[in-house]
Amino acid sequence: MADGMEAHSMAAHSIAAHRSLRIAWFSDTTDAEGISSYCSKLLLPILAKEHQIELFSESFATTLLGLPNHHYLKAYRCHREQPFDIFFYQLEDGVAARFVRTYLGIMPGITWVHDLFLSDLGAEATHNSPWEHSIEQFYNNSLPFAARSISRHKLWPRAYREAALSPIDLFSSRWALNEFSSMISSRIEAEPGAHRAEYLAIPISCAGIAAPPQQTPLSFATVCGPDLEGRAHKFLPALKGLGSPWQLTWLIDPAEQSAAEILVREFSVVDQVTLVLGRSPEKWSEILSSSHVAIHLSSTPFGHLGPYLQLALGSGRLAIVSDTFHGEETPNTSAFKITPGIHEYAQILGVFEAIQKTQLHTLTLPAQKMVASENDPARIALCLSKIFQESAPQMALIMQRWQELYQSAHVALLAEVRELASSSERNEIDVYKELLSQSFLELGWSS
Amino acid sequence: MAKILVLGVKVPFTHGGQEVLVASLIKKLRERGHEVDQIELPFNPLPKESLLTQAAMWRALDLSEFCGQPIDLVIATKFPSYFARHPRKSVWLVHQLRSIYDLYGGQYSDIGDDPRDETLRRLINDGDNKVLAECKFISAISKNVAERLAAFNGLSSTVLYPPLPLGDRYRTQAPEPYVLSVGRICRIKRLDLMINALALTPKLSLKVVGVVDDPQAMEYFNNIIKQHGLESRIELLGRVDDDELVSLYSKALGVFYAPYNEDYGYVTLEALASSKPVVTAKDSGGTLEFIRDGENGFIVDPTPAAVAAAFNTLVADSELSQRLGSAGRRMIESSGMLSAGWDSVIEGLLSPLSAHEVTQAAPQAVGA
Predict the structure, then answer these.
(1) From CA B230, how far away is CA B179, in angstroms rounded?
(2) Which residues contact B45 (CB under 8 A, 6 or more apart)?
(3) Are residues B7 and B147 in the same domain?
(4) Strands (E), chain B
């Protein structure tokens, strides 16, 4: 939906035309490399002008990014004191965002899925929970609660649980949306039309990235990892095969340094390659300012090419991408696309040589236009705001039903407590009634 | 002199820092002439829904007087003992129900997204806020525990470090080539880090003091021991008496203590008091309040390779090992964590009495 919006209808739409919503924004804001953090920094200043947004994170700071912040475990109390209209989650793979993964099963909301494939199962208590049963109960409150202590199946590594628990999922990768739609969404329909899945591009800001340098030698930049999926073992020899001088700036994580150094030595390109540690969009933007070509050959369902690929395209760099996974969605008119396999080295070398010989820049203009249009932060904020506005009535109903589910859970929990307290054969009195009920009342645990 | 009840929580067949803390506190209160007794209820973490019942049990106790003798003060220690009701309640917080706070969402918590689990979490969280706020004096055994209390419950507290249980009995002797690990044997203490590290430290053996708290974890540790063929280099000593413990500390090359987000960790202090360097991890919580990397021990990544590298450094450089150990002992001596530290602990815990007229007169000498 958001992707298909016409420009004129977008222009006609105004955030201010709608009521201000209270939004609980669950997102990592600390990981410099994280896509959630990057999106939050670009979108929140725009969205916060129109909506009352409060951040929920693992931090105990009272403000983050200029907005009120709470530890995520306090969300239920904040909601109890002043209800939110929308719970919004940014889901990505990685430790810093794991709390989002946990909490989106606690309170239904809108989830922006940046990573459909997650590199670990997560905490057993969450992963091995009866979440599928909870969804069924949500639609049919006559069902009893799930039996305790049953080991449940694991669907890994897709974010099956995470996506299923949100009534509205937004995907920042078309490839991931297609994957979700074909493999998962049909399996979680508890009610016809109850679940929505849409594409929403990530915001990109190319401000501060200088124009491509005019001078030679040809300079390349990459954020690909040094593992097999990063394809460095293909592009490094291709670079070495170039006839004239070149240089590569390789942005990696500190943990990847030794593996990258081994590759650089193996292909005898130590003098031409500069390793820069600490992958982040900010550092990538700095590197792009002195680079002609961006290499994004990562070929894996894990991770996300954004915002790195879009920063390169949006700032007018030639880009070379893998025609697999997330790379598939890059239009042929915007980047050179490479198919992994036995001809990969030859394809990459061919592209490098073509760029070198012809100073080929025909792709840069359409790519820049595409990013400026599709990834404009103001536009994304507007889309998101519209999604919030449109879904607010539906979310109110969902939250009401969820509240009813929690009331049932409270009753079920107290029934379990009573049963435990009175289950001993030696008990001649009802322990709960005679000893504990007064305490439960006084503590507010029962009424 | 006051009539005081110290409230303890006992997991049957285990023995940990809280038991030591309660026993030490009672002893020190009695030494100061107070009439003190201990109230202890068993604690069972399973099934988790019984946690409400166990908290309510504490709440249901009437601790205001016994046999017509009013109780002047109760001192609660850890969850759920602070649910007890008393007009003058101090808490010396060892820890709360960590699975709903700092351990939530991770591998050490069994609280998931089942709506009943979330309801349980909310009820206990709300209950904690209510009953802890009743306390006339709130203290915590470490900065780490105090910070959790402030962050999750919005309650400020005084940090009162528990002085060392064996006072000035700790000593040092020439090191022998073994690493000492002390503590309950369960997953969160991460003994597996040291066992795996032992495979990378061929010149060392490992002595483990502590009872098995989690049989599944022990089975896992035994598998690792077998996998690396370490049977001859690891001694599982179980629980030892105080004299043997002091002796084991005194002759160790160094002490491994790297639990995940430890509340406080007597072991750290005992090792330092024995002039032994401590190897701990960057995410070990309370231990980091005492260990200075490269000064009195090593703070490493929680990986076997990093732990092994630290101990191999101690093996290779005995002078460094001795220097780190001596620095640790100096820290303990200057911090007042030997028996002298009890004055401030007791002064704080008994502070609610200062506004209250103690009803029980001091016992009079016979024949007076």
Answers:
(1) 14
(2) B11, B51, B99
(3) yes
(4) 3-10, 35-42, 65-66, 69-70, 73-76, 89-93, 137-140, 158-159, 178-182, 205-209, 234-238, 254-256, 278-281, 297-300
Question: In the block, which residue shows the tokens 């909301």?
Answer: A109
Whether residues B115 and B181 share a domain: the answer is: no
**B54, B116, B134, B303: best mutation site toward chain A, by most A Cβ within 10 Å?**
B116
CATH topology of domain A7-203+376-401: Rossmann fold (3.40.50)
Thinking of the domain A218-374, which architecture would CATH place it in?
3-Layer(aba) Sandwich (3.40)
Range of the domain at B20: 3-163+339-354
Taking residue B353's Cβ as centre, other Cβ atoms within 10 Å add up to 18
Mean pLDDT of chain B: 93
Residues of B in contact with A126 (CB under 8 A): 105, 112-113
Does residue B368 lie within any of the structural domains? no
Q: Are B140 and B21 contained in the same domain?
A: yes
CA atoms of B321 and A26, how far apart (whole Å)? 46
CA distance A236 to A348: 10
Residues of chain A that touch chain B, judged by Cβ-Cβ distance less than 8 Å: 60, 71, 73-74, 76, 98-99, 102-103, 105-106, 123-126, 128-131, 134, 145-146, 148, 165, 405-406, 408-410, 412-413, 416-417, 420-421, 432, 435-436, 438-440, 442-445
Q: What is the pTM of this model?
A: 0.89
Examine residue B205 and state whether it is found in any structural domain, yes or no: yes
Q: What is the pLDDT of residue B168?
A: 85
| B120 to chain A, closest Cα gap in Å | 8
Query: Which is it for strands B234-238 and B205-209: parallel, antiparallel or unpaired?
Result: parallel
Sequence ranges of the domains in chain A? 7-203+376-401, 218-374
Do the first three CATH levels of A7-203+376-401 and A218-374 match, i.e. the same topology?
yes
The answer to whether residues B140 and B172 belong to one domain is: no
Contact A129 B112 (CB under 8 A): yes
Structure-token pair, residue A444:
């507010």
Q: Which helix (H) or strand (E) holds A249?
A: strand A246-252
* Total number of domains constituting chain B: 2
Residue A75 to chain B, least CA–CA distance (Å): 10
Nearest CA in chain B to A95: B106
Omega prior to B47 cis, within 30 of 0: yes
Same domain, B113 and B52: yes
Q: B261 with B313, same domain?
A: yes
Give one word for A62, left, alpha or beta, with left for phi > 0 and alpha for psi -120 to 50: alpha
Identify all chain B residues contacting A125, using CB atoms and an 8 Å cutoff: 109-112, 117
Q: Is residue A298 packed enough to be buried (19+ CB in 10 Å), middle (13-18) or exposed (0-12)? A: buried
Would you call A406 and B115 a contact, using CB atoms and an 8 Å cutoff?
yes
Render each residue's pLDDT in chain A as its tens digit; 447 residues: 344 334 334 433 444 456 899 999 999 988 888 899 999 999 999 999 999 999 999 999 999 999 999 999 999 999 999 999 999 999 999 888 889 998 998 999 999 999 988 888 778 888 788 888 888 888 888 899 998 867 776 666 778 888 888 889 999 999 889 888 887 666 565 666 778 899 999 999 998 888 877 777 889 999 999 999 999 999 999 999 988 899 999 999 999 999 999 999 999 999 999 999 999 999 999 999 999 999 999 888 887 788 999 999 999 999 999 988 888 888 888 888 999 888 999 999 989 888 887 765 666 888 899 999 999 999 999 999 999 999 999 999 999 999 999 999 999 999 999 888 876 655 667 788 888 899 999 999 998
Q: Nearest-CA distance from A138 to chain B in Å?
A: 11
Burial class (CB in 10 A: 0-12, 13-18, 19+), B50: middle
Say whether both B130 and B222 belong to one domain: no
Asked casually if ipTM beats, i.e. exceeds, 0.85, the reply is yes
Question: Same domain, yes or no, for B209 and B134?
Answer: no
Distance of CA A430 to the CA centre of its chain: 51
